[in-house]
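Hey everyone, long-time lurker, first post.

I ran two proteins through the pipeline my lab uses and got sequence/structure pairs for each. Pasting them in order. The first:
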Amino acid sequence: MKLKMLLCSLVFFGMALYVQASSNTTQKIGHTYSLLKGKMSVSAKLIDAMADSDVPPYFTFLIIVEDAHRRYEVESDIIVVENLDDALGVLKNSIYSNNGYTFIRHECGGGNAWRCNVDSIFTMKEGTLQWVGDMAGVEERGAVGRNYSADLFMDYYDKFESNHLTSHAAAPFLKIYSRDNKGALRVDLEVTWQQNRERFLKGKDVIDQIVKKSAMSEDESRELWSSLLRAAVLAKYCQRTKELDEALQIADRALSKDIVKEFRSILDNVISGELPLTGVKRIR
């Protein structure tokens, strides 16, 4: 009986501590925490939190990057952490400087999105804070700024990551490479084409093998239109007219009218040199 009472007391005490910790976290919503001080300062305002025993904790922060003249904001959802202090530690480890640029990581809170981790790029131009743009962040936490090399910033063109024609895994995926052009990113189309060319050629081999067949299975047909779409999106984005025309000719010849209609609808929305959407907002 005494043992049962002791166990009940321990469980109650543990629940009380958890409720108190959860309450303390809730009370801290609205608090702002300094991450970096200097001419360019970085802070994080806690705007939402969940510390429920039934689900893993998560924290949503408003990342604030500012100097005396300008202020930028972007949200970051932090999961797979033990508590608020752990989440703040992740944020402090998400800032990295290299070659005059400061890279600041913000996360989407998990999932399989291509750009769940984004490294926003900031610099000081003539003594004033400037947001240059974004690039894709690698999966590993703390490995900020890894997709910057040789004056090139790598990102993913994710406009058609979700579309009505392919699965997520088969969606038209391409890496885009940009340069800093007077304080703003501009895509280098030639470098982008060359960096995606190997993938393009492998896809072309798949297409050639399938179209040679007198009859296609349902899986082969799906693989054909997915491969053609990837090739066509890359070709149009990089202004490769010959490669685009070849993909369109095969599509018109080998695919059904309904598939071709959706295929061309997607291509109509490809904009050469377009950068992915950003969550960064300039406040002042």
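...and the second, right after it:
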Amino acid sequence: MPTSMPIEYTDELNNAFYEKLARPIEQRTATNVGRKRGEALARGLEGDPWESSAVGAAETAGTNALSDLWSNIGMQGAGMAREERLGGVQRDWQAGQADIGRQFQSAENEKLRGFQATMAELDRANQRRMKRSEGSGWGDVLGMGLGMAAGGFGAGAAKSIFAED
């Protein structure tokens, strides 16, 4: 029986699991060997090559079953190790994607804050310009000119057209 396997369980656990599952196989092998020896004795073929080959075949079948058992334990352990490794790779990928998403969102938020700051500054500049324009009297002159061009009634009509609600 191999003593070490590259799987997730310790050798002690693997050996305990193997021993538990191997016991019925070993008992069945011993029963089959005894049956073959009994058949040889009943036929008067004790010590004959027929007895040797029958007993050898029973022992070989038992040995093969035990080898298959150990191989299956190893394959199951390797499968579990593979699933764990792939799960780790998937967790790492998901964490990376989450980081990328956070970085993207942070960059988008920064762009939005910059845009909002620019728009607020433009609004303040526009309001300052409007206050200077109203304070200089040009608003009345322009309003009167527009009112006359539109066939209005003079400065009073222009003021009513451009008056803020």
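Reply from user beta_strand_b:
Welcome! Quick read of the second one: The helical segments are 11-42, 49-135, 138-149, 155-162. Residues 11-106 form one domain.
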